[in-house]
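Narrative of accomplishments. A recurring question from our advisory board has been how the design workflow behaves on a single, concrete structure rather than in aggregate. To address it, we present the structure tokens for one chain from the evaluation set, followed by the sequence designed for it. No filtering or post-editing was applied between the two.
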């Protein structure tokens, strides 16, 4: 994959429901790209925070940590924690804001169909969907690997 992933935008989502397919991507990107496991790093950070402060703390931590990796690209993996209802975050909005400063590729466990991006399955309690996707390059794993 060494630089074959098109980065025409500063924010690219690689969308796939099958987690194992997404897990292949980090080992295939250029050595110059930074791979960042959000779930692992954020969970270790939030465990020390009071529950009432976790939302603000998570936003600030994510923005500061990823923008410190500018100009990127940064491949964000393991994003599931950002969807936990207790954090009340909108991960898509966060990634859009951060991509103004750092080129992002986000491995998104979900689906993009008929102009709608979703996270999880409709029957899952973390299920969410978005329609306003202007400025975001969206690819499937197969497209990203070509």
């Amino acid at each position: 994959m060494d630089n074959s992933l098109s980065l025409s935008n500063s924010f690219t989502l690689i969308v796939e429901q099958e987690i194992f397919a997404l897990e292949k991507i980090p080992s295939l990107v250029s050595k110059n790209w930074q791979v960042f496991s959000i779930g692992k790093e954020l969970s270790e950070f939030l465990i020390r925070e009071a529950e009432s402060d976790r939302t603000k703390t998570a936003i600030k931590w994510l923005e500061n940590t990823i923008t410190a990796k500018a100009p990127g690209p940064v491949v964000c993996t393991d994003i599931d924690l950002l969807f936990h209802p207790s954090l009340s975050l909108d991960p898509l909005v966060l990634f859009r804001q951060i991509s103004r400063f750092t080129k992002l590729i986000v491995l998104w466990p979900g689906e993009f169909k008929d102009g709608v991006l979703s996270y999880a399955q409709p029957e899952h309690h973390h299920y969410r969907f978005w329609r306003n996707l202007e400025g975001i390059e969206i690819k499937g794993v197969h497209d990203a690997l070509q």
